[in-house]
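debug: dumping io for the single-chain case to check the tokenizer round-trip. Nothing else runs in this session.
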Amino acid sequence: MIEALLRSILFQQDPERAHEWTLRALETLGRMPRTRAHLWPASAVNEMLRQTLWGLDFAHPLGLAAGFDKDARALPALAAMGFAFLEIGTVTPLPQAGNPRPRLFRYPQEQAVINRMGFPSSGMEAVAENIRSAKPLSVPLGINLGKNKDTELENAVEDYAKVLGCLAPYADYLVLNVSSPNTPGLRQLQQLEYLRPLLQRLQELRREAPGPQAPAPLLLKIAPDLEDESIAALGALALADEPLLDGFIVGNTTLSRPAQWPHPEQAGGLSGAPLRDLATQVVAKIYRASRGRLPIIGVGGIFSAADAYAKILAGATLVQSYSGWIWGGSQMLRTFPEELTTLLRRDGFANISAAVGQDSQ
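debug: decoded output
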């Protein structure tokens, strides 16, 4: 009840100001372990939901998507809330402010968010210090890598290499983000002429980098707006004898809008409930294109265990939520494992791994 009241108050504030207030509150809770334990008591692991991927243990499939804690400020509190894993970022080599404000817009009636943030980041050195202060964590940590806005595409590989070299020692997995719609030209890096040499360079660097999961697996985050031809080309990367990546994240925000969308005036990437079906369709497409060879993290419109289950059946091994968690809060995290287990049992699956991709065969 208190959480619902706080959410109601925050939803009356400017979205970015409310986001900053929430982060500060979680930072404070991060320094109060007893309070964290009281607010979010640990629950028993359900073996039906447990998976080991890339040598990492995931108690259940739901993690926090990148974008909420860009600079790794609130990791202890977020890890205590019930997420099975966390992803921070996007992190750029140098600090940058991102795009001008206002750049974040919340639409409660549609359960949607539009953002044109443009990778605001404290920079890799500050983020590294924040992670060092927060370690050790009780859940796997992913780090989402980006380039600075003023770095030309021809030099993007150097930006990604710098961030990887700085942060790989702290990462359980790494994410190459070439799909944000809010950095001019960035999505061109999804084209193989740019992507292949970028992946080759990062694979070389990650093999040399120390870290808790060395070499840290490298995942590619793609846009939900890709044409089928591009999806097929990316899927083919997974079929190589020695793939240049270890998994996909599907996907980023979308530039498309649903029919009858009531807010045509706002540019930027759309997330939340309107992204749900599109993201699930692209999960299925990349699963089929890659023949299920590599794990997929499904993102977009996950507000419940049922939403997550749809993406798992489409081909996702793990899922992430951000907008859905903002609306659902800690109640969503508390009920998620039991609700997902009920769905698996209803359909006769012995465990979550047995359900992955069953609708995309």
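debug: round-trip ok. The first strand starts at residue 51 and ends at 53.
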